[in-house]
Design goal:
Number of strands: 18
Order of helices and strands: EEEHEEEEEEEEEEEEEEE
Radius of gyration: 30 Å
Oligomer: single chain
Helix content: under 10%
Shape: elongated
CATH class of the largest domain: Mainly Beta
């Protein structure tokens, strides 16, 4: 043990602090010598390697993740939700044709088996002339031709606001499960007698998810206010 004194108080210069004493005061250099290896990775929290430890006791493996992931309290990796948003409002009027309003391109392989997709969109009317039909679709091109219908809902004559949502569960490469896609409903947060719809969507290629508006009277003014898509992953 290397020691000195200051005003009669023993000063311990041992960089290992091996005495573990309540009667010695470590010097500044001894504290630095003891603490520096801990900060460099031999104790407490390791900066590199595969172990996170504290006081030389192993707790959790240190996971290797990506910028889209974070570490849960139990040390495991989780993936941040991925969100797409199209808030450029589109107004449809002067037509009774099926009109694509807002769309979001989902790049190939963005969604995979096990993902859950939350979709929300809003429609408003400033007129009460007639019923306006609407659908949520998915297709490899921005076209109604060959599009798969995810959801349908009409705005009757007196309906001026509709907040709509659907949740898709990618069960397999050929089964993306959604609420009955032929049943008109503003939401799939329901208890319903209709079976879920299985859609064969190839998420390994680019896919467009888009809203479609079809007025029954050219005088109606309908706005697709926003379309948002959120991917949830374990």
């Amino acid at each position: 043990m290397a020691q000195g004194t200051t005003k009669g108080v023993p000063i311990d210069t041992d960089g290992t602090l091996s005495n573990n004493s309540d009667l010695l005061v470590p010097s500044q250099k001894a504290v630095k010598t003891y603490a520096q290896p801990q900060l460099n990775g031999t104790g407490f929290v390791k900066a590199t390697g595969t172990i996170i430890n504290y006081d030389n006791t192993t707790y959790y493996p240190q996971p290797t993740g990506t910028t889209t992931q974070y570490i849960r309290g139990d040390g495991s990796l989780a993936t941040f939700p991925l969100t797409y948003l199209n808030s450029s409002a589109v107004v449809v009027t002067g037509t009774t044709a099926q009109t694509i309003a807002q769309s979001i391109l989902i790049p190939a392989n963005t969604f995979v088996t096990g993902d859950v997709i939350e979709i929300a969109w809003r429609l408003t009317k400033t007129t009460s002339t007639a019923t306006v039909g609407s659908r949520l679709n998915v297709n490899t091109s921005l076209s109604m031709t060959g599009a798969l219908q995810i959801a349908t809902q009409s705005l009757v004559t007196t309906t001026l606001f509709a907040q709509l949502n659907r949740t898709a569960n990618i069960i397999s490469s050929t089964n993306t499960s959604v609420f009955s896609n032929s049943t008109a409903s503003s939401s799939d947060v329901v208890i319903n007698a209709n079976a879920a719809t299985s859609l064969n969507i190839d998420w390994t290629v680019n896919q467009y998810i888009f809203t479609m508006i079809q007025p029954t009277n050219i005088a109606d003014i309908t706005t697709s206010a926003f379309l948002s898509i959120k991917r949830l992953r374990p």
